[in-house]
Amino acid sequence: MLAMTDGIWLRFLSGPEIDSLGLTRLEIVDAVEAAVRDHGEGETSFEPRVHLMPDNGGIGHFNVLRGHLNRLGEHGISGVKVVGDFVPNYQVGLPSELAMATLFDPTTGVPLAVLDATMITAARTGAMTTVGARYLARPDSKVLAHAGARGTAWWNVTMLDDLFDLDEIRVTSRRPESREKFAADLAAELSTPVRVFATAEEAFDGADVIVEATRLMEPEPLLRTASIRPGAFVVPYGTVSAVELDLLDVMDKVVVDDWREAQSGRFGSLRRHVDTGRLSPSTLYAELGHIVSGQKPGRESAAERTLLWHRGLSLLDVAIAHLILRRAELADVGTMLRFH
């Protein structure tokens, strides 16, 4: 917010204030789908994510994401998010990912808002999984299997349950207490039966929709290629690879959120596949934006095995942050802070 006589003011939105706005899961998924479509149509700009690696013994790092959406706001909207990725945080009662986002007017550089982006980070990940499922999964998918119980897990499962008429949700994670709590929380929210499995291999076997969101410190093949049946939709996006190297060999279509992002950085579930040439321009089917914008078809048969690898686009963070800011302005929620 800019007022020349009164200085420059921006809106600060805390996590509880964002929660009070009551955004629905469908609203978040739709905002992400619109951003993905804009990306496919060339109506966005963003820089490759960069990592800040503190000297902390390897317990965590920071990701810095920057993006701009042309079609939001009067002149578009620009944003930057910084998110920490600290796997051991559960030991001190903290989420593994804590984030902060800032939004800017792209015509003046004036800061518009500072937001707790922890929920945004988790929700946009689930929403991207769900947008991918809208176009790449079988509409009659009945069994969802999910490995991992971190913050993104809730959004993955609940948003996918909104999308499909599921018969069963299977969940697993490495720590028994985390998977049991996750299952209990889901059962309290959803009507779909939730089953807990001790291993990922058991949970994944024969499922229609498979989401691998584990938190490994070292590569380990938890998602076995043999578990992928005809018609399955697979989303592997753990920071460290939990899949076998031949996974892509059985896939009919491999889709990424952005090919440049897929090639960058040292992390990612399919990092070895890129580095060894198994995932390349010749084996990649499309970026998801090209499918959402209608430039390429998504799923074309019930038997296709499809895979979406999304690294996490800054554009999605900007889209949801803008949605939150507009809702907060209408409700007069947040704290106005003098910037200049």
Overview of this protein structure:
It comes from Kribbella ginsengisoli. This is Ornithine cyclodeaminase family protein. It is a single chain. With 340 residues, the chain is of the alpha/beta class. It has 2 domains: 2-120 and 315-338, ornithine cyclodeaminase, domain 1 (2-Layer Sandwich), CATH 3.30.1780.10; 124-312, Rossmann fold (3-Layer(aba) Sandwich), CATH 3.40.50.720. Helix content is 31%, strand content 26%. The protein contains 10 helices and 16 strands. Strands 1, 2, 3, 4, 5, 6, 7 and 16 form an 8-stranded mixed beta sheet that branches. It has an 8-stranded parallel beta sheet with strand order 10-9-8-11-12-15-13-14. The chain is globular and about 65 Å long.
Morphology call: globular
CA radius of gyration: 20 Å
CATH architecture of the largest domain: 3-Layer(aba) Sandwich
State the major sheet: 8 strands, mixed
What would the keywords be for this entry?
alpha/beta; eight-stranded mixed beta sheet; Rossmann fold; 2 domains; 340 residues
Structure summary:
The chain is α/β, with parallel strands linked by helices and 340 residues long. The chain is built from 10 helices and 16 strands. Strand 8, helix 4 and strand 9 form a beta-alpha-beta unit.
Task: Outline the secondary-structure elements.
Blueprint (H helix, E strand, L loop, with lengths): L1 E2 L3 E7 L1 H6 L4 H16 L3 E9 L7 E10 L7 E10 L10 E8 L6 E6 L1 H19 L6 E5 L3 H13 L4 E5 L3 H14 L4 E3 L3 H5 L4 E4 L20 E4 L16 E4 L2 H5 L7 H5 L10 E2 H5 L13 E4 L4 H18 L3 E4 L2
Parallel strand pairs: 2-7, 8-9, 8-11, 9-10, 11-12, 12-15, 13-14, 13-15
Antiparallel strand pairs: 1-2, 2-16, 3-4, 4-5, 5-6, 6-7
